[in-house]
Automatic annotation (TrEMBL), chains A, B:
Family the entry assigns: Belongs to the group II decarboxylase family.
InterPro entries: PyrdxlP-dep_de-COase (IPR002129), PyrdxlP-dep_Trfase (IPR015424), PyrdxlP-dep_Trfase_major (IPR015421), Pyridoxal-P_BS (IPR021115)
N6-(pyridoxal phosphate)lysine: residues bearing it: K302
GO cellular component terms, semicolon-separated: cytoplasm
Domain of life, per lineage: Eukaryota
Species classification: Eukaryota, Fungi, Fungi incertae sedis, Zoopagomycota, Kickxellomycotina
Source organism: Coemansia spiralis
Cofactor(s) the record lists: pyridoxal 5'-phosphate
Name of protein: Glutamate decarboxylase 2
Protein EC: 4.1.1.15
Any one GO BP annotation for this protein: carboxylic acid metabolic process
Gene3D superfamilies: 3.90.1150.170, Type I PLP-dependent aspartate aminotransferase-like (Major domain) (3.40.640.10)
Keyword Disulfide bond part of the UniProt annotation: no
Amino acid sequence: MAPSTDLNTHSPGDASEPASEELRTLLKTATNVFADYVARCQSAQAPILTQASGDELSERFSQLGPKTANIWHDISEITATATNTWSDRFLFKLYAAPTPIGVVAETLLAVLNNNAHVFQASPVGAVLEAAVVRELARLAGFPETTGGLTFPGGSYSNIHALMIARNTKFPEIKTKGISAPLVVFTSAHAHYSIEKAAVAAGIGLDNVVKVPVDAGGRMDARALEQLVQSAAGVPFFVNATMGTTVLGAFDQLEEIARVCQRHQLWLHLDGSWGGPLGLFADPAVFSYSMAPVDSLTINPHKLLGIPLQCSILLVRHGLHTMKSALGLSADYLFHSDSDKWDVGDATLGCGRRPDAIKLWVAWRYHGSAYFTGRVNHARRMALQMAEMVKVRSSGLWRLVCEPASTCVCFWFVPRGAYEDPGELEAHRARGVDERWGRVTRAICERVNREGRVLIDYAAVDLPYGQPAAQPLPAFFRIPLNSPHTTRETLAAVLDAIEQAGHAIFNQL
Amino acid sequence: MAPSTDLNTHSPGDASEPASEELRTLLKTATNVFADYVARCQSAQAPILTQASGDELSERFSQLGPKTANIWHDISEITATATNTWSDRFLFKLYAAPTPIGVVAETLLAVLNNNAHVFQASPVGAVLEAAVVRELARLAGFPETTGGLTFPGGSYSNIHALMIARNTKFPEIKTKGISAPLVVFTSAHAHYSIEKAAVAAGIGLDNVVKVPVDAGGRMDARALEQLVQSAAGVPFFVNATMGTTVLGAFDQLEEIARVCQRHQLWLHLDGSWGGPLGLFADPAVFSYSMAPVDSLTINPHKLLGIPLQCSILLVRHGLHTMKSALGLSADYLFHSDSDKWDVGDATLGCGRRPDAIKLWVAWRYHGSAYFTGRVNHARRMALQMAEMVKVRSSGLWRLVCEPASTCVCFWFVPRGAYEDPGELEAHRARGVDERWGRVTRAICERVNREGRVLIDYAAVDLPYGQPAAQPLPAFFRIPLNSPHTTRETLAAVLDAIEQAGHAIFNQL
């Protein structure tokens, strides 16, 4: 096809306004739209969750294709139906409100649109990534030769750790594929991404051994060693956790590390949730005893308030280990004259956001002391909430366990949940009742539907795989994170739970 | 540890200013800082690439830990050393300047900080994702029951396609792992992410069969069938490409689809680069004949100007196929009462940015006609540049092939590259000379070092695996994408190449 003669008249950009001025006009409006939105979100009466169902929302946003008359109308519809993460009463998942500087840093990433696969496509991103990796490695007691990169979330960091471990221990798998069964060990309370990693890696769920946990939700190192010795395939990888997903338990590393040394297993530490607490907390508030591990995941997008996504994987054996495990040195992208700053080949991806810039900017803006203050506050709020649960007296309030870090797990059973009030009193003294799971779910559903508080529930066996193990009915799981949380927040959440419980069960 | 009595005095947020006002103040400054930066980037003389090395930059940004006196100073250091993707002379990789509304949409994502794993954590993100998936599926001729999600880049979309195919065809792999060799087929010119997927999946590089390509860089369907029939393991997956990484070739799908049907192979189509051209272009400008495929990757962060990252994987067999291939239904996150809008379990990840919101907002702001105009323009610029290469007369200019879509690949060999001018003339008539690769690399390195233009080179065999195959020396590979590109841009790039060539070789 011959090119048309009027090529330059086809530029889709409107020549009447340069992109810089279009951006200025849009960002100017966005500044007020977004700041007003946040102010509304933080007001005491702000709803947290839309009451529209997915199908209803889908109707509302069905238009696509024709140009909108007013993009700010569309954006206000989006903000009106988004989940309000700025409220102190958003206590739903392991992340919270982003820091304002984090929002600016995210905007910076979009403005730069640099790509962290090769140095020339993101020179400053590459060095800022190295800087935050160096500092996190120092805090975690890793050697100076540690390598590290950002990945699109804790799961991807964990998946990369497992893939790097597999290909480092069995280099022939990179070329020949898997032919013998490999075995992975992870605590029964660890995050599911280890299982997803095993599925992805061609290892299979049957070869993921769930290691028992003690009464505090921590991996049992003696059970681990027995399971390693009796494994049906070739053990190679152990995942320990700093801050389990539900209870927030920190696995005790020393003994686990000794087991791994004795059996030459790769020890990965998943600190997606609890990592920043372990690394930044004032020792008087929270202390954790590190031991040498091969790799570590930390998610600054959780406890450090960086906007989603910012997850970092550290690998003790350096970037060259990551590259030789996963790299292909594709000619077209990674030229032979490229240097150590071309890091993308150490990942399973290609194009990559320079997410580390966000952490670097937030770190410079606030200083390390802010991160310490932030995680200290989260820990103190967890302890505070546990105390408040213990002294409540309407119905039955009981902690599942003392908060291991920054999650508080408890039951609330209103008197009306039992026809005979004596039954409740009987349960106060002895074990737990299976009925409490239905009570928890019903209360949680009602609280969230009312929309003033967003909370969640979970259930785990505690301990697990031990003689005393018992399956626990579902309980409230409240993760503490946001610096906006106060004692009043905690009281409001407990009140909302109590009121919803009475509203449901005292009518029965 | 008992909670301290002064819990509420430890809030790390500065109580003197609410977050909304901190955000307003920061975004107000950011608006001007970023718009001024873009204006500088788009000026005719703006440098594209920093001249500082990684080690030099690393020195400059070594401070971390103490709070900075002025974050805008730090940010201006970052912008000053970032790669300038706003210039029309940034022609380095397959992405370009983001659209201004894309930057605003990215800021919106950060402000919302919603998380696309479960519906309640990102209700509006879930429905906007479904909306863009529905519309892209319609454009690609997929059925209404198609499932689709965003992933953190084209590689991750392709990796997920391969994992979903593997676990759908061999469901026992999810639990038992891989025990027999599986074989994957992809064109010799396809993106390396298919090989990375095979490494990740435990299949191994030796089981990735590189299918020969014809003189246009397109997969040879007859060769594919022969290779399938003679494979040493179990064939299950074929990757075809809309827009190969170097030449931009579009594989001819009909015959490939028939081969896949005959042998019951999953057919994936990697449209990371060329997908938007195939889907949105005016048929008079570019047309592509689709055929039924099982899955399709499209990266709006490339040809549609959405800020990095925005990649979408469509799966013909629906979201339930994705979920049953990869899902674990982790209790703590995906409650049994969760509905079809909880989609995260269909991915290998957990937390997930609602990237589809960016595409939805840009689509509404500009309308479909903008996307059509944008890809038409990119295609026309490629044809225009090819014509300009053909008529240049100083030294030897030669296209590697006619532009298949929106990449232009060519050699320039200055007279001075040969001691005897007759040698150059002799090469004008017959084949190519291995020396041209060194010439290309030297010129490219100098052009990029001068910093006014950023371009790249590549080398592929063309055809490949055929009797007439020849290894080609490295050539310039110019991807056209940005709406800011004009005929003047193209002339400036060719002039820069020519001048650098003369400066290097006429001095010899």
